Amino acid sequence: MAVSDVSKAFRLPHQRYSTLKERALHPFTSSSYDLLQALEEVSFEVPQGEFFGIVGRNGSGKSTLLKCLAGIYGIDGGRIDVTGRLSPFIELGVGFNPDLTARDNVLINAIMLGLTRKEARRRFDEIIAFAELEEFVDLKLKNYSSGMSVRLGFSVAIQVDAEVLLVDEVLAVGDGAFQRKCFDEFDRMRAENRSILFVTHDMGSVERFCDRAMLLEEGRMLAIGPPDEITQRYNEINFGSAPTSGGLAPEILGRTARIKSLWCETASGARAVAVGRGEQCRLHLAVEFQETVADPHFSLIFRNEVRHTIFVATTLAHGPTGIFDAGERATIRLTFENWLAPNRYTITPMIAVWRPEEQVLDRKDDLASLIAESQVNSGGGTDIPTPLEIIRS
Question: Could you tell me which of 197, 198, 213, 195 has the C-alpha nearest to residue 85?
Fold first, then answer.
């Protein structure tokens, strides 16, 4: 795939009329509009077999770019060249008819994406099985939940044997177990030398899967390169000005220390985005000091999908951390057995000192995420093994 100087703008009218009656009542109203430049001269190439990440803040043009690549939007300038069949999975519900059943929608969409009628029917059972919707195959899509629609749409997209797959961040709608299945599919498609363009806010997934990544800001390409460099640039832009999840920006004490990256590994040292119940998990927090700091404390805040804080791991409970000199780098590692309830968790790292009250040196909300998988769910925030003894009298 080759993208050369692609630009796309939208007209935002000052007055919008949806009926003929409104237009008749206001025949002389000005038809002026504002111009929103969603993309401006974006250029990049994705060779066959590459997993290419596209990151950026909300409104940076990521989804617009994917819709242009898929042909949903026409472009105002530039050129897009795609070699091979392209399969888009870029917006919840796009291409589905809510008044038709899953059976009908699967067959129609598979044919629209390039399969013959015979191939679509042959792969129907595989599509439904991957989506885990065998019991709902004859239910109309308007009665599906958003998670069910996501599973169905992604399952169709990966079954058409496309050379290029476009995936937007709608995967975040699915539950943890389904996201893990999607990630396994990514590994399979990489092994089959397919190209994947992946839009996400999850920097952990970018570093885990992508060969290269691109950073967009206000419709322009700011950088393109190795995933670790792009995630660092993204964090600098995003957390340098964006508010925290609580709505208020933390008071950062100058540029004394900086959080560089955060990632998860399994016990074998392989990077991971998901971990099973009882498995060992290792979180690595890389930091750098611009000035000498005495006894900083490091914290990792775990929140679930509804923004509840499940637990906080901190060095405060382990005494002084010592003196860190200007220019020194360090990695803080947290090793724990996963007894979290099945869910998708975001992790917020923080560096702070007491002088005499707590002062934050650096903090990056929701810098990484972790999917906890388990067949057991007690309904609580954690599933710590708690065997109960039954004594009969």
Answer: 195
What is the phi-psi region of residue 269: left when phi exceeds 0, alpha when psi lies from -120 to 50, beta otherwise?
Answer: left
Contact criterion met (CB below 8 Å) for 350 and 367: no
Tell me if the domain spanning 2-13+34-234 has CATH number 3.40.50.1100: no
Q: Is residue 185 within a helix (H) or strand (E), and if so which, with residue range?
A: helix 176-191
What parts of the chain have a pLDDT lower than 70?
A: 14-18, 20-33, 91-95, 170-176, 239-254
CB atoms inside a 10 Å sphere around CB 201: 17
CA atoms within 13 A on the CB side of 139: 13
- Its pTM stands at 0.69
- The residue extents of the domains of the chain are 2-13+34-234, 253-373
Q: Map tokens 């637990």 to a residue.
A: 311
Pairing of strands 274-276, 297-303: unpaired
What is each CA distance from 331 to 5, 13, 239, 272, 319, in whole angstroms? Answer: 40, 51, 20, 18, 17
